[in-house]
């Protein structure tokens, strides 16, 4: 079983995330996509970060009808901050028959040297990189020729944009799964 691991805060999960996962499945680049929720990313500010269980609830709503998508909360039980290498090792130990590939955006690829044990990750796991607006793909190739660049569409949307729009009372329903949008409204999330 080939599994692409899509790490993120998913604060909130949006259509760009799920459309990228669909691209991987549709193009037979993986058998499943696991969305790994990071409770505490050491390279991100924790300001505005909703509780990980609330983010997990939204993730479950977004993928409930997608049998090849899975929600993975393994980092909830690991030490914080969450380091990808440790999560990869924990998953490999738990699912020894699975072949894991790390999926990251070109924004993360360009700061990959700041990750814990970046060379070890590259040695032990394949890494696929999807394009992010404003981050030069050719730089990724120059820095990490072993990373596989995906020619997926650039899903020009971010959770940060969504949170900002919500605080400004703008309509974000077209960026979110309808159930996720309703969950945010019902629970008055990202209001201030």
Describe the structure.
Helix 2 (52-63) packs antiparallel against helix 8. This protein is an alpha/beta fold and 192 residues long. It has a 6-stranded parallel β-sheet with strand order 3-2-1-4-5-6, with helices on both faces. The radius of gyration is 16 Å and the shape is globular. Helices cover 37% and strands 16% of the residues. It contains 8 helices and 6 strands, in the order βαβαβαβααβαβαα. The N and C termini lie far apart (43 Å). The chain has a single domain (2-156), classed as 3-Layer(aba) Sandwich (Rossmann fold).
Low-confidence stretches: none
Provide mean pLDDT, rounded. Answer: 93
Q: Could you tell me how far the N terminus lies from the C terminus, measured between alpha carbons in angstroms?
A: 43 Å
| CATH class membership | Alpha Beta
Helix tally equals 8
Biggest β-sheet: count, sense, barrel? 6 strands, parallel
How would you summarize what this structure contains?
This protein has helices at residues 15-26, 52-63, 84-94, 106-109, 118-124, 137-143, 159-167, 178-186; strands at 2-8, 32-37, 69-72, 99-105, 127-130, 148-149. It is of the alpha/beta class and 192 residues long.
């Amino acid at each position: 079983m080939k599994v692409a691991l899509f790490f993120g805060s998913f604060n909130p999960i949006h259509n760009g995330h799920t459309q990228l996962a669909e691209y991987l499945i549709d193009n037979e680049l993986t058998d499943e996509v696991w969305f790994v929720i990071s409770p505490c990313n050491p390279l991100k500010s924790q300001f505005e970060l909703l509780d990980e269980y609330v983010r997990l609830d939204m993730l479950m709503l977004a993928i409930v009808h997608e049998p090849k998508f899975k929600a993975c909360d393994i980092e909830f039980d690991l030490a914080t901050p969450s380091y990808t290498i440790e999560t990869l090792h924990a998953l490999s130990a738990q699912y020894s028959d699975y072949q894991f590939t790390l999926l990251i955006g070109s924004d993360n690829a360009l700061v990959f040297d700041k990750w814990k044990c970046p060379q070890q990750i590259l040695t032990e796991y394949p890494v696929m990189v999807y394009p992010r607006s404003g981050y030069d793909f050719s730089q990724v190739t120059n820095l990490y020729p072993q990373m596989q660049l995906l020619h997926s569409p650039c899903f020009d949307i971010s959770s940060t944009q969504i949170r900002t729009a919500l605080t400004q009372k703008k309509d974000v329903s077209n960026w979110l799964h309808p159930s996720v949008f309703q969950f945010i409204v019902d629970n008055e999330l990202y209001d201030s």
